[in-house]
Amino acid sequence: MEKRKICVVVTARPSYSRIKTALKAIHEHPDLELQLVVAASALLDRYGSAVDYIKSDGFEIAAKVFNVLEGENLTAAAKTTGIGILELSTVFDNLNPDIVVTVADRFETMATAIAASYMNIPLAHVQGGEVTGNIDEKVRHSITKLADYHFVASENAFDRVIKLGEDTNSVFNTGCPSIDLAAEIKKSPELDFDIYKKYGGVGARPNLSDGYWVVMQHPVTTEVGSSRRQIEATLNAVFNRKEPVLWFWPNVDAGADGTSTGIRSFRENYDLSNFHFFKNMQPTDFLKLLYNSKGLIGNSSVGIRECAFLGVPVINIGSRQNARARGFNVIDVDYDEKMIADAMQKHSAVKKCKESYVYGGGDAGVKMADLLATLPLRFSKTITY
Amino acid sequence: MEKRKICVVVTARPSYSRIKTALKAIHEHPDLELQLVVAASALLDRYGSAVDYIKSDGFEIAAKVFNVLEGENLTAAAKTTGIGILELSTVFDNLNPDIVVTVADRFETMATAIAASYMNIPLAHVQGGEVTGNIDEKVRHSITKLADYHFVASENAFDRVIKLGEDTNSVFNTGCPSIDLAAEIKKSPELDFDIYKKYGGVGARPNLSDGYWVVMQHPVTTEVGSSRRQIEATLNAVFNRKEPVLWFWPNVDAGADGTSTGIRSFRENYDLSNFHFFKNMQPTDFLKLLYNSKGLIGNSSVGIRECAFLGVPVINIGSRQNARARGFNVIDVDYDEKMIADAMQKHSAVKKCKESYVYGGGDAGVKMADLLATLPLRFSKTITY
Amino acid sequence: MEKRKICVVVTARPSYSRIKTALKAIHEHPDLELQLVVAASALLDRYGSAVDYIKSDGFEIAAKVFNVLEGENLTAAAKTTGIGILELSTVFDNLNPDIVVTVADRFETMATAIAASYMNIPLAHVQGGEVTGNIDEKVRHSITKLADYHFVASENAFDRVIKLGEDTNSVFNTGCPSIDLAAEIKKSPELDFDIYKKYGGVGARPNLSDGYWVVMQHPVTTEVGSSRRQIEATLNAVFNRKEPVLWFWPNVDAGADGTSTGIRSFRENYDLSNFHFFKNMQPTDFLKLLYNSKGLIGNSSVGIRECAFLGVPVINIGSRQNARARGFNVIDVDYDEKMIADAMQKHSAVKKCKESYVYGGGDAGVKMADLLATLPLRFSKTITY
Amino acid sequence: MEKRKICVVVTARPSYSRIKTALKAIHEHPDLELQLVVAASALLDRYGSAVDYIKSDGFEIAAKVFNVLEGENLTAAAKTTGIGILELSTVFDNLNPDIVVTVADRFETMATAIAASYMNIPLAHVQGGEVTGNIDEKVRHSITKLADYHFVASENAFDRVIKLGEDTNSVFNTGCPSIDLAAEIKKSPELDFDIYKKYGGVGARPNLSDGYWVVMQHPVTTEVGSSRRQIEATLNAVFNRKEPVLWFWPNVDAGADGTSTGIRSFRENYDLSNFHFFKNMQPTDFLKLLYNSKGLIGNSSVGIRECAFLGVPVINIGSRQNARARGFNVIDVDYDEKMIADAMQKHSAVKKCKESYVYGGGDAGVKMADLLATLPLRFSKTITY
């Protein structure tokens, strides 16, 4: 029997981290052949060159697609998606996959979904059914309505996809593959490397031995005009606490300019002797860093998922993670300096939070690979109501 | 107060017919400015040059976008959509509309939906919530999840859009604007022109005075391989009945080749003395033609909507119109010569069917214009569950 | 030593025929690896699906690129080229060739030239330096100014490329690879197949045993408005002579509509009992057909090149082949029924013309492969004056 | 008589400065209507938002086209051009200009040339016939072969365009429109504004009253790998001289990363108390700044053109300006610290150089407008040899 060709399109650094164990499981599955396509910001240096990590992790790349239109505005996001469709169609036409896998809900993942579904290639969607703020919200559910299989990460998401009119036989709660990596890390979570040496970055190099905070805050596309004010609330709160802060640059999105400008301007006006800035980090190292931190501040989904599993305290700011299921580790706050400061104070009282399995137990990748190997191939469906 | 700029993107001849009264109502509304964009097959001669009708109807065209990629295969459909996004983004950036309107569910309408929603322009979707077979099914609900306002055509569709998690305040049963035109036609439905003279076409010119059938059957994109066999069932059934047949060419879609080839081959092998073939017809003339016919055969939505209102007997073939609400005029059949023949026989017993208002009462265009003038502008939403 | 990767982009049926022996020579060269990219109309059924011949000739296809925008107008030609650049860049980025080869002067070959030269990939241009009418004229010399190596087909072309400011070391008169095929055919030129049976086509099937004419006339892009009138002069001339005519459909170009419409209309109005129409033919069969014909009529470059070598009488109509070097076989005429008729009469007096080696002697493919294997790699140049 | 519609496409800040007086002359010409299209980096903040200057100069913008693909690599340059063609075709189709004007030789100007020439719109090319290093060299001459009219800037360029086979009647030595602006500046060249206050920028704010140097050095696309080393030679030379330096960031081009990285790294490792960095400046202010400086260092064409006219000493580094005609003001040097330092020393001995009219006398814009109003419209040509 010929192996099923599974084409996974990775378009951004965070998506790669999240899907990595699934890629590994597909690659190692006896009945599957992995066709890995790397596109969009995953190819770009200023968003952390996921492509380099992908190669150094030993994956072979079937095709690269440069499609990020410059501008960091909303027009550019739309055009990036249009170019993505144009080129991924050619890629799919040349690779001829049996199933295409699209990950999560970034705007450009819609390109994968449209190219595959329009070409009658069965489409699997990872991480549908969640609720967030942002354009991601529209994109995610819109992709659900194009996808033929749904690999969701929580019970809550499972129920929502069913409510969206998808057939019960097409929805599977695999848990989130990002938890798989966290599960491995939990086995030996020591911060066994010098982060400054290994990752460079810019700014002061505060001593981390008495604890440190990690910040990762992305702009929210539906609130473009406010992104500078939003980032300043966070900057002020963590600056005033005077504890070491490891700050990660936001990923590419309309509004990044407001966020980036806010950070740069703050840096010029204040002596940030307790801040160090990173562009990115290998996922495993990042999870170790989180595990050993006083907590994560911002609006990254890592705080909601991996940190729930790892019991890392999280201060989740604003609407971006919205109604996603929570573990026991999250304090939700507004873009408000005082609320952020209070939450930091509160979290400082504990070392770790209770661990939660709301996003799965660490076998999502293997479950997905097994499903991809056995699901009946189909590319047509009708709404259930 | 400045007028709201309403940008409507028309991508195909049938969409234009359907939305025409809404365009007129927007154009005439004191608080609205119409920005009409004509794109895709609406610009192409071999799909009936809707653009010519649009101009002769007196509408000013704000921008034209050529984006149909050649191939009549599924890759081309995806790429056409990608190019559409790329270009419509520029058009929207230059026109700067307050609301964008996208019509129905053809594959390329997704380009309008993505460009507008990614650019944070409030998006109104006309004719969501219906159920059909085909890639249209995926596209339609996917657009619903991107749209901010929903102008649906029936109660049934209204309920479905609500179930899809849309806010009740954003869904409006306006009825279908195609019914508006039918309502006008009903006032004086005489076939007051010589169709052969006015529209040319090819084939024999059967005498229509004792009645005639109209056929319009489109390929179904999820059943590409079967399109030739499907069209042959219809060809055989109508050929054998030996009554006059006015046949309309299918619109552009992957699979058109199978359908077209089937028709051409049939034409070469049989003496079709009772067939005449048209490429297209002005909507008002087409409705008059239907009104005075023995019935419509095929899978066009006109049979489900306008014909329900007009009481024209319809034989609806296959899955394309699926679960759309029916009036009293439709007999649903498979791609089966005998079933089609039997339905023709059955319909022949009556002259007209009972009229139905399931798709509205003829004021959809005006209702839409009023809504577009008064709805609060918004481009962000959260699923209701 | 690693083999040099030579990427040849084929975008149309006639280009494939012309370059075929070079492809073979590259494929068989011990120091070269052929990367064959098939794009544009070479992939489309209605332009003769060159891709099928390419496969049946045993070449492996490295990538396919669908980029023909529908419209058959000039806007579509530009957009086809734009999409070509967008996609070929990705293809080149993925294939990483050492040299890219672009063939001749069709509008879309510019896409290959731009993608390669902008990406600093050494670019070889086949058949530069010739003079014709048409947009081809602009395209051809424009590509010369982008190319790093020039494989020209005649002394005349050689001189012209040098005059254009190219370095003598970069220009090589290889002869035309189309002659290679003609040289093979000349060894056994019998029409050893039933053309009607093998190629189908439409129209009458005149008896060919007493001789026949072949017609191949393409629209000229700078004379779009006149293409219908131009084709009618030819139709009238060959119709009135009442000898068998084998007519080949024009290839895709803006204006094809005028040409095609002219032919279709003529066919409807006259009883063309001596005409048969073909869409396309395998190059070897086509050359045999020409070899045994009374002559070729139209504006195809085959008349200027292969027919010069084979001594086939040619009536070359209009400006399209312009100042290309001529052998002894061509009578040049205007788009004028009488001039065409007179030339047919004149050519009828001879069976064959004197053979000419103005376009080489049959070893162009091998010469090109040898050059591609040994030329120093470079992608930068300065004009020589 | 209807006015001729002249569509000028501006794709970058420096091109705008250069063409500005022509835009003004076209706009003011009684027989012409200006259609100004702003595209590519001219729309982007990080390349100086030429679009803002264009608006504040009072020009109306007919269309904006975002087409810069992110990557700052060569693939991105090719794709940017492809997208440009795709979109400019739509723009031209909607604007329907009588003549399109493309400026100079940046890679993306090819998009304008292809869209216009393929659409049979007469194309005027400004600044053909010059010789430089770089991909610009290929692009420039390639555009010459597509263009119908040539508005060249010097006798030298005039001769070269004729040698390229263009008809004498289509080539006009108008002089360079950039000189028009310089001619105005020369009338009152005082540095009558506070550059730090007006333009911000970063770095020290050295006192300029005893003189200062201006640096503007762009990466050279054919020497991508060397751009960092190249910029360091300049950095070292000007740093060591310890006189005030006003440094302008390079424009967008493949390789900008190497150049930018070199500058950033230097800035981090040295105390640049005599350096101030600007992103951009209004052209008139920039010319005043140059006029009052000790000289311009780098490889900008401003040094070759405007500075020749103004008599500003220039140290021209490397191959980028290659064989362009020189006035009396230029010392050409390699990417070599010592050579640069020596040239600075030599130029320091004089205050101004002798003025030269090699690039015209200040009426290029008016000359161009007059030509555009009167030239016969044509879009077809044949090489002259």
UniProtKB/TrEMBL annotation, chains A, B, C, D:
Its EC number is 3.2.1.183. Gene3D superfamilies: Glycogen Phosphorylase B (3.40.50.2000). GO terms for molecular function: hydrolase activity, acting on glycosyl bonds. Keywords: Glycosidase, Hydrolase. InterPro entries: UDP-GlcNAc_Epase, UDP_GlcNAc_Epimerase_2_dom, WecB-like. Pfam families: Epimerase_2 (PF02350). Residues 24-372 form the UDP-N-acetylglucosamine 2-epimerase domain. NCBIfam families: NeuC_NnaA. This is UDP-N-acetylglucosamine 2-epimerase. It comes from Algoriphagus sediminis.
